[in-house]
């Protein structure tokens, strides 16, 4: 195959017509318009063996010649007249003269279209996979039947069967709002069942929390379903009965999340905020965290070691730090040489009595039920149990005095390895709550 090259001052219609009869099976003719400068590109015509004529944009990148096909000559659909080909050449020339490689630009545009199509396909797939409130309740009840006691499962199933039916089961779970939750609870209170309304609120809250976690589980793949719930709609709905028995207050998961982020927006000192967060993270007493000292922290081992004089049971207590807790300590401002959390006087640590007042002020701006600092310790105990940590390890994490003979007189193992594992589990569980 040979190529006969030539150049002309300007490629005109009469020239194209003159090449119509010159097609040969072993020859390609290439005609260039004389260059106006490498920075503008060159208009090229190729006459193929079969007589077809193609237009090209020729240009140079790093001294190497490149070309991009503009189109095929003709007047039928999908082909270009000479005028149209030159118009497209001018557009490519403008792109090239601005420093952009036309071929690269074409590839980027093609990739963008592919990406947009992929996003659209994902949206369509999401619509097909998106689970309804009926599916959510069915999945949640199956989960309860497998993971919880029979009595609890039956109670929830009965409550859903009686009162959840007022919402169309085909409604997407992510479309349920606090107004829908209020409607359900209002119908129950109208029957005079205030306690049942409180229970139903708890059941629904747990169900939506399950739905949030469901999307990141193996079940979502197995059942080809996702709920795409961004926020638990029950969080903004207050309890019907608010009184809690003294000494039994434990924050729910949604209350922990609300409290955590309310702290960040509270305007209270970073030291007090960090104490509250560390109490939730370690299950420690307020006086232990408020008086925390720099020399009690081992950065290499990621532990806090409280001497016997600093603990209630007069036993040395080693607290392994998980990722969230370690980041808080690592980023805590060092304003005092001894204490992590100095008072405004910068002489002594934060005083314990100020923490109850700080919580009371904070709660006035939230929907969280009343609690006191020591309830954070109970919350840690409750939620770490829910996370799957054994009571024995929870007791050791909180430095409870174990009363059995073996623990008191013979067991000198520090359980640090087990406590580290437990704190990592709690780290992930709390991170899911906060997210």
Structure summary, number of beta strands: 8
- Rg from alpha-carbon coordinates: 36 Å
- Oligomeric state of the chains present here: single chain
- For the terminal residues, how far apart are their CA atoms? 67 Å
Secondary-structure content class = alpha+beta
User: What portion of the residues fall into strands of 2 or more residues?
Assistant: 5-15%
Mean pLDDT: 88
Largest sheet: 5 strands, mixed
- CATH architectural category of the largest domain: Orthogonal Bundle
What is the CATH homologous superfamily assignment of the largest domain?
Intergrase catalytic core
CATH class of the largest domain, named Mainly Alpha
State the helicity in percent bands.
Answer: 40-55%
Largest sheet, spatial ordering of strands: 1-2-3-4-5
- Principal-axis shape equals elongated
């Amino acid at each position: 195959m040979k190529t006969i090259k030539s150049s002309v001052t300007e490629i005109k219609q009469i020239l194209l017509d003159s090449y119509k009869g010159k097609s040969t099976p072993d020859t390609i003719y290439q005609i260039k318009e004389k260059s106006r400068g490498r920075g503008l590109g060159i208009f090229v015509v190729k006459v193929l063996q079969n007589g077809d004529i193609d237009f090209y944009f020729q240009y140079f990148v790093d001294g190497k010649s490149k070309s991009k096909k503009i189109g095929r000559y003709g007047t039928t659909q999908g082909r270009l007249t000479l005028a149209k080909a030159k118009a497209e050449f001018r557009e490519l020339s403008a792109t090239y003269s601005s420093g952009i490689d036309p071929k690269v630009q074409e590839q980027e545009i093609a990739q963008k279209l592919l990406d947009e199509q992929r996003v659209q396909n994902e949206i369509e797939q999401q619509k097909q996979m998106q689970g309804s409130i009926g599916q959510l309740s069915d999945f949640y009840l199956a989960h309860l039947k497998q993971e919880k006691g029979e009595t609890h499962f039956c109670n929830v199933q009965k409550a859903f069967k009686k009162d959840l039916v007022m919402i169309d089961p085909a409604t997407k779970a992510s479309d349920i709002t606090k107004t829908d939750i209020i409607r359900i609870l209002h119908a129950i209170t109208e029957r005079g069942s205030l306690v049942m309304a409180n229970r139903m609120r708890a059941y629904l809250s747990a169900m939506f929390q399950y739905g949030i976690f469901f999307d990141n589980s193996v079940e979502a793949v197995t059942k080809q379903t996702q709920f795409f719930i961004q926020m638990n709609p029950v969080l903004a709905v207050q309890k019907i009965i608010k009184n809690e028995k003294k000494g039994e207050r434990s924050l729910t998961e949604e209350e922990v999340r609300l409290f955590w982020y309310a702290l960040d927006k509270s305007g209270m000192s970073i030291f007090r905020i960090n104490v509250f967060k560390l109490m939730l993270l370690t299950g420690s007493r307020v006086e232990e965290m408020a008086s925390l000292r720099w020399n009690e922290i081992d950065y290499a081992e990621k532990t806090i070691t409280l001497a016997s004089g600093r603990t209630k049971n007069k036993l040395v207590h080693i607290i392994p730090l998980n990722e969230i807790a370690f980041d808080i300590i690592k980023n805590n401002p060092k304003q005092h040489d001894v204490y992590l959390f100095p008072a405004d006087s910068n002489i002594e640590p934060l005083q314990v009595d100020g923490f109850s007042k700080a919580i009371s002020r904070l709660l006035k701006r939230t929907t969280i039920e009343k609690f006191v600092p020591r309830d954070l310790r109970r919350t840690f105990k409750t939620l770490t149990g829910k996370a799957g940590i054994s009571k024995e390890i929870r007791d050791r994490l909180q430095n409870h005095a174990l009363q059995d003979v073996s623990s008191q007189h013979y067991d000198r193992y520090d359980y640090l390895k087990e406590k580290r594992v437990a704190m990592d589990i709690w780290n992930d569980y709390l991170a899911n709550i906060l997210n």
